[in-house]
Write a sequence for this structure.
């Protein structure tokens, strides 16, 4: 009884666009939904540093190395903002990492694809960050206060990510025949994975309806995906690149681009852990975490010692 | 839940420009004050967002409770004479 009334008040707040804060009453399902979504988002930022880190030592100039380093550092920051937002829901950082390492928590499948050439770094910034931005701009309006505030901060930092990637692709497509080919090849390999970043179609998405009703998400997967496709095609075309989709066409009636059916078998295969990089990404994260154990122990020992000292003095 | 070995939670406040008040920027984990300050700089001022940083341990913050916020803030409701718009001014009065 009490809960039904609370639930009604909660929905009224959501409908009136009043943000929910950590200490406010919230339905358990709302909390769980957020725990899953925000932590998955945080893990994606952190795991996403790996394919880019792969090229840090081989960036073609000092300029591009500095830029890539700054970009990867931003992604670490994004992960940390998001972990803190997720922790306000009563789950510890330690627990989030444990769920990731056990395979209970997911991260965006797109980071399971390898970065084979320098052009892939361009394609990641242009397409993967480009897709992420569409999603994150929309999430600035999410109903959970800490998540929304993290998104606002992240969006401010993201636009440089997409531009630096697009610049790499643009430079390559103006270069030698071989460089042009490299840019085209990267587009060919990253286009569909970037489209799949928006997740299953609206009808097939397990959490979609409730998420929209509670304004955890503000727009559906398909709406966001369409916006991404519509704004990206022109960016590729002015560079003289072609998209790997023979059915890609501007639909005169809707004003939107039509695309081929998405290969969901490929999508679910990678989500379930059989992508080219799943095992490496996770193993690398676990190793880094385990290798850092002595640092955490030393830091705790130092803190305890300093606390004891300040009590004596 | 296992024992948390990820350090303490700290809240970070940034002063965007001289003369402006510090504003909450976000949170971070750190094991001591020095580490908190360095991490706050790296996390929240990578683009000249501030000229000053305040950090406080999250557990030291005293906050009002949303459950009794209504009764807590109520006493201000019937004191509209605290606002300048409450007062009637004679026609033609200026600069007041
Ligand atoms: Fe990011
Ligand atoms: Fe990014």
């Amino acid at each position: 009884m009490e809960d039904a009334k609370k639930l009604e008040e909660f929905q009224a707040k959501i409908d009136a666009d009043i943000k929910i804060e950590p200490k406010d009453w919230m339905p358990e399902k709302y909390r769980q939904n957020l725990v899953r979504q925000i932590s998955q988002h945080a893990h994606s930022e952190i795991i996403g540093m790996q394919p880019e880190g792969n090229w840090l030592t081989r960036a073609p100039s000092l300029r591009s190395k500095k830029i890539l380093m700054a970009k990867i550092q931003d992604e670490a920051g994004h992960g940390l903002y998001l972990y803190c937002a997720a922790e306000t829901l009563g789950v510890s950082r330690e627990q989030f990492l444990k769920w990731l390492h056990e395979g209970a928590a997911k991260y965006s499948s797109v980071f399971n694809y390898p970065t084979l050439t320098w052009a892939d770094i361009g394609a990641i910034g242009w397409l993967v960050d480009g897709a992420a931005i569409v999603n994150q701009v929309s999430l600035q309006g999410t109903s959970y206060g800490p998540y929304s505030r993290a998104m606002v901060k992240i969006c401010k930092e993201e636009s440089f990510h997409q531009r630096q990637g697009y610049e790499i692709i643009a430079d390559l497509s103006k270069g030698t025949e071989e460089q042009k080919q490299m840019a085209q090849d990267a587009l060919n390999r990253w286009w569909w994975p970037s489209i799949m970043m928006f997740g299953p179609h609206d009808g097939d998405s397990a959490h979609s309806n409730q998420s929209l009703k509670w304004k955890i998400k503000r727009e559906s997967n398909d709406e966001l995906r369409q916006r991404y496709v519509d704004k990206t095609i022109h960016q590729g075309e002015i560079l003289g690149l072609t998209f790997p989709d023979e059915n890609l066409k501007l639909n005169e009636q809707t004003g939107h681009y039509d695309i081929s059916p998405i290969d969901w078998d490929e999508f679910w295969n990678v989500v379930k852990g059989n992508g080219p990089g799943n095992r490496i990404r996770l193993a690398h994260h676990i190793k880094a975490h385990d290798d850092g154990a002595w640092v955490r122990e030393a830091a705790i020992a130092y803190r305890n010692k300093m606390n004891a000292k300040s009590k004596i003095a | 839940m296992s024992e948390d070995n990820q350090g303490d939670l700290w809240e970070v406040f940034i002063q965007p420009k001289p003369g402006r008040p510090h504003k909450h920027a976000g949170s971070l984990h750190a094991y001591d004050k020095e580490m908190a300050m360095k991490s706050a700089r790296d996390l929240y001022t990578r683009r000249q967002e501030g000229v000053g940083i305040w950090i406080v341990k999250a557990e030291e913050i005293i906050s009002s409770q949303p459950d009794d916020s209504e009764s807590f803030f109520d006493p201000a409701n019937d004191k509209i004479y605290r606002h300048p718009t409450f007062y009637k001014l004679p026609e033609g009065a200026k600069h007041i």
About this structure: Chain A is about 70% helix and 0% strand.
